[in-house]
Design a protein that fits this description.
By secondary structure, the chain is an alpha+beta fold. It is built from 13 helices and 16 strands. Helix 2 packs across helix 5, helix 8 crosses helix 11 and helix 9 crosses helix 13.
Amino acid sequence: MAPPSVTIIEEGRITVPPAAALSEPALFKLSPLDAQWITLPLIQRVLVFDAGAGAAIPPFESVVASLRASLAETVARLLPLARRIVFLPSSGEAAIDCSEGGVAGGVRFVVAECGDADAARVAGDADHDVGLMERLVPVLDADALPAETMAAQVTRLGGGVAVGVALHHAVVDGRSVWRFFEAWAAACRGGDAWSAAPGLMFDRAAVALPGGEELARTVLRVHAPNLPVATVPKFLVEDRLKLSRRTFTVASAQIHRLKQRIAGALMASPLPSSFVALSALAWVSFVRSKNSAGAIAADDEVYLFFFIDCRGRRAAFDPPVEDNFFGTCISGCLAVATARDLLSDDGLVTAAAAVQGEVRRAAEDPLAGWDWMSLLSRISLHRLVNMAGSTRLPAYEAADFGWGPPSRTELVTMNHDGQVVLVAAKCGGGVQASVSLHPAHMDAFKSHFESY
């Protein structure tokens, strides 16, 4: 069935004055951690507000006006989101141009409507309407440098409204995405998001890996050899549309029982983190669902990949990158096991021990996996679970624009068969886990995931 059509009502630009205050250099050369993302998919996230669930949504015209005005105020403080990524051919580098010349028209702001889509259904369905969600977020002009770093879209739905954004992953990581939403929502509510917070830092020089600018140039030559062309590989765009997606909400009590089960078997104290427990559960469920379908054999090696935030870690950078760094500051981690071990009765415990071991290793040497693209190129991706996000990301709490938190928030760009996106759930200390899988494996995954 074709998804409901979305009609563009208006498409314009939110301009930011060239003289917006900036106490740092106006040209931020991408670090090696940024540079790996130049030709990878965007971050596209949608927030759905359902009036029937209690959201006190103003008239649509008022929603649009307040979102537009508050976004202008927000990106004036977060200039990398209002500028462009440019190519510097003389040096082979890429940079975020925050100078007056980098304005280039401002942030694209789209107003749309989709009266055939019911906000309550979109917010309530466990299975994603992928075709519709793709239409509720904007795209970026990012196939070549100079490339946009952000766009926004607000769409009128039946009984509600959707707010969608597209952000370039070379400019923000998960921590920065939610810092942006928190600031935008506070500005929309009429509060001052900046009065009590330290000034944000944008200069990528703080992410000082050995090799410096030459290392960043090397990363670009390896992973984006055709610059200024920066087209996302076609298979990443086409394959994600073939995947089935489903969202699970794991209550706080369920997570606690899962932790106790793992800790009891390991005879360990304290309890494992929520991230470790849910990663182990997702990994085992993935392996069992694929094994039952014949896609993974018992003797196969299987993997779980995740990122760690390197802010504040002296073992990564000295001096450490401060918490107020607004950019990309993440490094990769890879847990490895055999499918046979995860298929056993003690599979959950084995998985948790492997994930916990990788967390401990990463604490000692956070940057061991900084070149995560090269790491993943050496393994079989169809046997990989890609854990994204964090159990602590305030996806609902941070996004109250003045009419209550969203009824549903999802990452639209889930690109991998075996990707799991974690955020804090809307209520009660639970966790939302959104999963993308081959359609033939989703029901078995659900059965295993919910059986614990």
